[in-house]
Design a protein that fits this description.
It is built from three helices and five strands; from the N terminus they run H-H-E-E-E-E-E-H. With 93 residues, it is an alpha+beta fold. The chain folds into two domains: 1-39; 41-62 and 69-93, Irregular (HU Protein, Chain A).
């Protein structure tokens, strides 16, 4: 689903609001989630799931093409854990 599709779905369910206002609300929500994650805070949306930032350890690996050993630095990754209710819906169907 694209962001514009999300805005359209929300605007359909809230006919009293202009699509422009709904788009602005979606932008604000996404910006706040991004801001919280950049501050290493956990974001939990009940009934959907939670987002958190995890740090991967630095490691050494072998380039399969050249055989040369490479050092991969530590980096941050986004981790999503789905809620129990979402997991049940996905399993059912």
């Amino acid at each position: 689903m694209l962001k514009r599709e999300l805005v359209n779905k929300v605007a359909e369910q809230l006919p009293d609001y202009y699509k422009q206002d709904v788009a602005q609300a979606v932008d604000i929500i996404l910006e706040e989630i991004s801001q919280a994650l950049t501050e290493n805070r956990r974001v939990e949306i009940r009934g959907f799931g939670s987002f958190s930032v995890r740090t991967r350890k630095p490691r050494t690996t072998k380039n399969p093409k050249t055989g040369k050993m490479m050092d991969i630095p530590a980096r941050k990754t986004l981790h999503f854990t789905m809620s129990k209710s979402l997991k049940e819906v996905l399993i059912e169907g």
